[in-house]
Amino acid sequence: KSENLNVLITGGAGFIGSHVVRLFVKKYPDYNIYNLDSLTYAGNLENLKDVEKEPNYQFIKADINDAEVINELFKKYRFQAVIHLAAESHVDRSISNPFAFVKTNILGTVNLLNAAKKTWNGNPDNQLFYHISTDEVYGSLGETGLFTEMSPYDPNSPYSASKAGSDHFVRAYGETYGLPYIISNCSNNYGPNQFPEKLIPLFINNIINEKPLPVYGDGRYTRDWLYVKDHAAAIDLLFHKGKKMETYNIGGFNEWQNIDLVRLLCAIMDKKLNRPEFYSEKFISFVKDRPGHDKRYAIDAGKIKEELNWEPPVTFAEGLEKTVDWYLENDEWLKHVVSGEYLDYYQKQYN
Ligand code: NAD
């Protein structure tokens, strides 16, 4: 990639986006990094306090659903590359309000694609629409097998259906208009700055506060987990070295059943909080299953490993411990987030 590249990162105030923004701002001082985010409940500029004064960073408050504004911004800043993370991202919210997911995840993505298509004629070498997606587009697995890049799309929740739709549009703009793209589909992320509606930070917060730990169904749901900074590093690698017009799976080679994960988390936290062994486990409660709940996701990240020699460096035990330490050290961040709308939502969801 050339120097002075103007890179638009959408959703940079969110969980994964903030790690991607930080990595790019610090690692590539010659790039101009524009973080575009509408700051929904999930966007939090506190996540980026340490980079906000860097000369190569600029925040733009805008909504990807606003086509006019997005077109103007592409003209004004001449973005040459996009890393698109802005999305409605929580499955439970997609069950109560699917339309918001159709709007941002599908229509918002198409707005960005249109703006890129309009402004990017010529020199495709320097252009890239990098779309960040999820392994949930592949649906659910049985006891065995792994999702590969060739697995058919089979989404089950409004969230995964909306992400599948956005993936199809990105690929279609590549095929139809020659728009240079990369898509990566990643497994569940965890780590610092994750909004505490998602399993790991929700449970860390509840363990601290001795609140119930609601586990869906029988707790035997299986997910692959990846440390968020490893995901950001994989995004950096694919952005610079991935083959255009291709899809890559990113995963942690790290499958866990929910109940085992929750027990491990309780054990780590009991140690950190000087509580007796098994103290926090008594707060585990099994709650009614989520409708359309996918039994198992597991990802084959062999393509990125073979082509680009990428493997997640952080093990789950290390990553989880780092995450717990971060939440314990950043209790102000957690307090600010666990308030207002989030609490209402939490009460509706789990009481
Ligand atoms: P997040 O909810 O923490 O962050 C989303 C960000 O997008 C927020 O800052 C929000 O303000 C912003 N946003 C939402 N709607 C917007 C709009 N209309 N215009 C502009 N900004 C808007 O999500 P996350 O967990 O960081 O996920 C980021 C991306 O990665 C999403 O596309 C998600 O589908 C994908 N992904 C997430 C995971 C995961 O485990 N969290 C795994 C794989 C892929």
Automatic annotation (TrEMBL):
Record's keyword annotation contains Lyase: yes
Keyword annotations: Lyase, NAD
Domain NAD(P)-binding: from-to ranges: 8-323
EC class of the enzyme, as a word: lyase
Catalytic reactions of this protein: dTDP-alpha-D-glucose = dTDP-4-dehydro-6-deoxy-alpha-D-glucose + H2O
Keyword Lyase in record: yes
Pfam families: GDP_Man_Dehyd
CDD domains: dTDP_GD_SDR_e
EC code(s) of this entry: 4.2.1.46
Cited InterPro entries: dTDP_Gluc_deHydtase, NAD(P)-bd_dom, NAD(P)-bd_dom_sf
Recorded superkingdom: Bacteria
GO molecular function, one term: dTDP-glucose 4,6-dehydratase activity
Cofactor(s) this protein cannot do without: NAD(+)
UniProt-listed Gene3D superfamilies: NAD(P)-binding Rossmann-like Domain (3.40.50.720), UDP-galactose 4-epimerase, domain 1 (3.90.25.10)
Similarity comment text for this entry: Belongs to the NAD(P)-dependent epimerase/dehydratase family. dTDP-glucose dehydratase subfamily.
Name of protein: dTDP-glucose 4,6-dehydratase
Gene that this polypeptide is encoded by: rfbB
